[in-house]
Amino acid sequence: MSPVMTLAPGEAIPGPWGLVEALLVLTFAAHILVINVALGGTLLTLFAPGAGRETAVGLAKRLPSAVAIGVNLAVPPLLFASVLYGQYLYTAAIVSAVPWLSLFMVVMIAYALLYVYQPRAGAPGAGLLSAASAVLLLGASLILVNVSTLAVRPDLWTGYFSAPAGLVTALSDPTFLPRWLHFLAASLAVGGLYVALFSRKAADAGAGGRSRTGLAWFIGATLAQIPLGLWYLLSLPRPVIERFFGLHTGGSLAFVAGLGLAAAALWAAFRGRPGRAAFFTALAVVCMATVRSVARLGYLAPQFDPATLPKDFQIGPFVFFVASTVVVAAASVWAVAAYRRTAKRG
Ligand code: HEM
């Protein structure tokens, strides 16, 4: 066995860092998109339930799966981030252990509440169930913004020495609030887009109206990103901001492409095309996930750069990983198609 396997995080990596970073960006984008659907959809059951609660009923059918898929899609970025930034992520999780370890219980209760809500979504008063679930999911997002911010601010870890109870927060970081609001607005936008996507396929008379309401949420929340995104950008440390204005070619390109794709998504939504808007949104999220990775590199430089870590490319596990991904993806497509065929037959 290679001795690299026994090393602590931050000592060496089992493959080229660019490959691991690319996988981290792609899997994180998938995680956050589905989480946006789960949180945004749960909030829209409250803010836009529909005249006869049809939107809420349509969402309720889909939300438990969205939470389950979002949580499953959290595992790959957790593992890839651990490979490259393990010493930062683990320490951030340890100093904020109380919220971090609560995360799993918080998400499980939110998930269970959405199941209880599912058959009752059309009934008066059921909104209390989705409201409780929304509060817990919002709590989960705050826990993750906290740990992700702590993971790039090692100077805040010293809080542990004055209060070693696992309750260190990054609330004093100027990016905390705009970072979270940026995620919240994205969730409302993607939740609205999701409503537009599934409503346009419905056959009832109100489907067109529901699809337009979903698009209106997408447009409104995406326009709100202009001041929120600007606030978030300006709250970043100067050396990090400069990476998006020419200092880092990939970061600058991803930033400009992300903005362009978001504008294209808005344009498609204005023209009543939810499918196209979803396509551009997914690409914009991949660009923004790249921007987030470049920002992390900027925060950690010059003390840490994963590109300088010694590597021992373990091709066997990598091939096994790719092969398993392909098999699982094929099995998932087959399972969804089989489910749809059975559902159509009644
Ligand atoms: C319970 C299982 C979950 C796990 C293990 C998990 C894991 C992670 C990890 C490891 C990251 C950071 C990836 C990186 O550093 O590149 C992340 C980011 C994030 N997750 Fe999840 N997640 C989970 C569920 C959720 C839920 C339920 C929400 C919200 C409702 C959520 C919202 C977020 C947000 C907003 C970020 C980005 C934080 C930021 O950069 O400011 N996650 N998650």
Automatic annotation (TrEMBL):
Keyword Membrane: yes
Chain segments annotated as transmembrane: 23-51, 63-85, 97-116, 128-152, 180-203, 215-234, 246-270, 277-295, 315-339
Keywords tagged on the record: Membrane, Transmembrane, Transmembrane helix
Protein name: Hypothetical membrane protein
Species of provenance: Solidesulfovibrio magneticus (strain ATCC 700980 / DSM 13731 / RS-1)
